[in-house]
Amino acid sequence: MLNAIWLETFTTLCEVGHFTRTAERMGMTQPGVSQHLRKLEAQVGKPLILKDGKSFTLTPAGEAVFELGKSRRAEERALRDAISADDPKVGELRIGCSGSFAMWVYPHLLKAMQDAPELVIQVTAAPQASIISQVLEGAFDLGVVSDKPDHPRLEATPLAREELCLVLPATYEGDGIDLARLNALGFVGHPDGYAYANELFALNFSQEYLGSDRLRLRTFVNQIGQIPLPVAQGLGYTILPRSGIDPFPHQDALKILPLPKRRYHRLWSISRRGRSGFARIAAVEALMKHTAQALGTP
C-alpha cells in the first residue's frame, strides 16, 4: 500500500501546483515536500512529475496517483461522516461558489461558526464547471451555481434570483444611458464582465451592441472585492450581480442604473444525491437559502 502521508502531500502538491505553497498549506518545509515526493516515486517505481523551471507537469503515473489521492480523500471523508454523530454544529463542510457569492455569503457563514466551535467551513471561489465536477467528486459538499445542472447524481435547491446590475459612479448624472455614454466613461473589466456585458447589453441595445470585444476598456481587475473600487472613484462602469456589489463598503459612491430590460441569474445550491440529509449540510444550505433571500426570491 502507498504511504498515506506521502500520498496526501503529493495530492496537495498537484492541487496547489507549487512546492512552497504546498509546504505552507501542510505546515512543512519545502525540502520536506520534495522528500515525500521522492519517497512516493520510489514506492511507485516511476517518476510522478516532470519539472519545467519552477512549474511541473504530471507524468501518466503521476496522473494515476493523483486520482488515487483524490479518491482516498473522498473515501476517508465518507468514513468520517458515517462514524461521526450527525450534528449540525460538528464537522467539516466545503463550499464552492462564484467569487461574488463567496464574498457575500462568507460573513454569514462566519457567524454560524461563532455559534458552533466544532464546525469547520471552507469556501472556495471557482468557475461553475469546476464547482459541479468537484461536488460530484466529493471535494465540495455544497456548490452554488447559476444554471441548474442536469445530472442524476446531483440534487439542486433554488436559493435566490439575483439581478445583473449596471454599476456607475454616484457622480453619473441623469437616469438615461446609451452605449456612447458608456464607452465615453469606459468599462471596468473583470473575468466574468464580458459575459455579463453580452447578456445585459444584447438584451437592451440589440441594434447598437456589437459584442463585448468592442467595449472601451478603462481598467481590468480579477479580485472580486476590488471591482467596484475604480467605479466608485469615477474611472468607469462595470456589470456585476447583486452579490458582488452589496459587500462593497462605499455604497454611497456607486449608482445602480436599472435598464429597461432586466437580466437575472437564478442561483442553485447543489450537492451529491443523498448528502443533503447530513445535518451540517442541511443546516448550512438552509442558512444560505435564508440569507440569499436578500438578493431576490428564487
UniProtKB/TrEMBL annotation:
Domain of life, source organism: Bacteria
Molecular function terms, GO-annotated: DNA-binding transcription factor activity; transcription cis-regulatory region binding
Domain annotation HTH lysR-type: ranges: 2-59
Gene3D superfamilies from the UniProt entry: Periplasmic binding protein-like II, Winged helix-like DNA-binding domain superfamily/Winged helix DNA-binding domain
One Pfam match: HTH_1
Keyword list, A-Z: DNA-binding, Transcription, Transcription regulation
Family: Belongs to the LysR transcriptional regulatory family.
Name of the protein: DNA-binding transcriptional regulator, LysR family
Organism: Celeribacter halophilus
